[in-house]
Amino acid sequence: MCADQVIKRQDYEIITALVRDEATVLDLGCGDGSLLSHLSDTRNISGYGVEQDDKKVLASLSNGINVIQADLEQGLSGFANDAFDYVILSLTLQAVHETEAIIEEMLRVGKQVIVTFPNFGLWRHRLQIFLGKTPISKELPYQWYDTPNVHVLTIKDFEEYCKTHGISILERIVINEAGNMVKALPNLLGALAIYHFNKVAK
To answer: Which fold has domain 3-199?
Structure first.
């Protein structure tokens, strides 16, 4: 199993633990629909995926997933407020351009939101920068010239964003490169961050 598949599997299992049975779910950037398929099998959820890539849309449909072909950067205007119990953005936050707009839309259409992202603050990434290299790891496996990532962020960055944007963090789960939970020094030792949040009640 390649590193990317290992990360995705860990990501999926943690997301599954955060989603309640028979919930409604919107998966943004759903790829081939494997996360929604997994949630359907394990949590009996009902949901939709949003995906732009033609081949991935076809793969989702062949996997029995309800998928809408659309560009996330254009917003989620086709969905009503609080239309879903959960909106999920898995390992994609670092690859979107209109980050604030997308998070606002997720909070609008979802009662709760789950995002996962590789932590750029990991000690190994810091060491590579100190040595004058662009960081490469199993969480960030791309070379500088072929990466789909347009932003890099750390756990500390994301939590400061939540504080300044009226977001209430319900749960934070951080794992290291071996897939173990990190409790101490998460911004230094954490490789992958999973956040479960909603809007601060007014």
So the answer is: Rossmann fold (3.40.50)
Question: For residue 89, what are its two tokens?
Answer: 């953005």
Here the tokens at position 91 are 């390992």
- What's the CA gap between 128 and 65, in Å, rounded? 40
Distance from C-alpha of 176 to C-alpha of 119, rounded to nearest angstrom = 10
Among candidate residues 119, 98, 137, 108, the one with its CA nearest the CA of residue 195: 119
Q: Does the structure show a pLDDT above 80 at 8? A: no
| 95 CA to centre of own chain | 10
Task: Give the pTM.
Answer: 0.90
- CB count in 10 Å sphere of residue 11: 20
**Residues sharing a CB contact under 8 Å with residue 163, sequence separation 6 or more, in sequence order:** none
**Two tokens at 111?**
């009662």
Q: How high is the pLDDT of residue 195?
A: 97
Contact (CB, 8 A) for 33 and 67: yes
Q: Which amino acid is at 84?
A: F
Q: What is the mean pLDDT of residues 105-125?
A: 95
Helix (H, G, I), strand (E, B) or coil at 65: coil
Nearest CA to 41 out of 21, 61, 58 is that of 21
Q: Number of H helices and number of E strands within the chain?
A: 7, 7
